[in-house]
Design a protein that fits this description.
Elements lengths: L1 H10 L9 H7 L7 E8 L5 E9 L16 H4 L12 E6 L11
Parallel strand pairs: 2-3
Antiparallel strand pairs: 1-2
Length: 105
């Protein structure tokens, strides 16, 4: 996100930054593929006043074990539910797949 913020500030308009899978795992922690949508509102001083984020992704453990639970607290705590900003209006949503067999645990 810092990359997008710097670029957006330099050119004076919103930007979309897309990393290749190679860059993503080269410079960050390995995790499953995900789709994310983020939107924010800023005050006159450029401080965030509202934040919305949505995501869908398979649980990391599903790489090794079929039937792992989606929306696991461990997966969501990796920068998703523990936002390090004091934002008055903040929303976070993630899609959960209902298991086709077994318990939702």
């Amino acid at each position: 996100m810092a990359e997008a913020a710097v670029l957006s500030k330099k050119i004076g308009r919103p930007v979309k930054v897309v990393w290749s899978r190679e860059d993503d795992i080269k410079f960050g922690y390995y995790h499953t593929v995900s789709a994310m949508y983020m939107k924010a509102a800023l005050d006159a001083n450029g401080k965030p006043t509202a934040w919305l984020q949505r995501s869908v992704f398979p649980p990391f453990a599903s790489t090794f074990k079929v039937g792992e639970r989606y929306g696991d607290a461990d997966d969501l705590s990796l920068g998703w539910t523990d936002i390090p900003y004091d934002i008055p209006t903040c929303g976070s949503k993630t899609a959960r797949r209902k298991p086709t067999c077994g318990s939702d645990g």
